[in-house]
Model the fold of this input.
Amino acid sequence: MKICVLPGDGIGPEITAQAVRVLDALRREGLVLEMEEALLGGCAVDAGGDPYPEATRRLARAADAVLLGAVGGPKWDALPREQRPERGLLGIRKDLGLFANLRPAVVYPELANASTLKPEVVGGLDLLIVRELTGDIYFGQPRGIEVRGGERVGFNTMVYSESEIRRIARVAFEAARKRQRRVCSVDKMNVLEATQLWRDVVTEVAVEYPDVELSHMLVDNAAMQLVRDPKQFDVMVTGNMFGDILSDEAAMLTGSIGMLPSASLDENGKGLFEPCHGSAPDIAGRGQANPLATILSAAMMLRYSLGQPGAAQRVEAAVKRVLASGLRTADIHEPGTTRVGTVEMGDAVLAAL
Ligand code: NAD
Done:
């Protein structure tokens, strides 16, 4: 299995190095994988002027999975738009055809106090949001702002085809099979025809998965239920816009951005795995960054792209043990716990593994 590693900018190289150490440990135990690094984002701009260079494109296309740190930083903010690090990120997502975004929101019992919600509401939460990434009102045509009847009118088009809905629904049902086998599909079918079709097609796909329980929820209720009783959900699947909003809401249930991994998958299960946070330029180079979101992204890679659920589970269990032992990086540190740096946190995960 070939993994393309893209450390990126800011804290990216520091946190990615810890995830690579974990994968290396699994390799020494017999997991067959090759890792090769390439440039993406600001570091690639510095090296050759292109945030997604040809060499990176070739490596990413040939790999079975891509592990990414983070890109961007103030150093590149004044560059023309096509040379910004974010262009590299959008470029690789588009190039690899990544249409499904998976964002787990897990609240480890030891970190329940980091949430702004009551510990009894979020403690033990384990939710996965599956968001469609390439369709919906964000890409639908026609769109624009024009003058009609003497005033400006803004308009966008919410559009989903049957095949787009079917493929994201399958990702959700497959993911549920690896979890508690429950899918909640979120739409606004009482008002929007595009989402009536969404509900109809998800219901059709459910027939192929008799072992997975399907429920439907309107998006306004889903937003409310996420803060009222988030533990009722296992897998939540929804379109691009609703998913954009609900996945950030779910992320904040956990209260700690340094803990959140994500996966973006293509039609064949190949994916790009990255932490939800950015390059944290304010702490870059200080050895303080929390590497756990990246290590947990590597675990998602093992599960979703490399077909190694056992190894994924071991990495996740190792992270849990480290948290239970009281070690914390600065972002999740509380009185009574032991503060450690990026490398020490990596050491601890390796030891627990
Ligand atoms: P950020 O996520 O980088 O940082 C927000 C805050 O969280 C900062 O205080 C930071 O120190 C802290 N933080 C983030 N990750 C952490 C970690 N692993 N451990 C400890 N603390 C952590 O968001 P931002 O400051 O808005 O953006 C900084 C740069 O990152 C920008 O250039 C932005 O464009 C880029 N960015 C990149 C991605 C990506 O690569 N996918 C995503 C978001 C932002």
Notes: The chain has two domains: 1-99+266-353, 105-135+164-260. The chain has a mean pLDDT of 95. The radius of gyration is 20 Å.
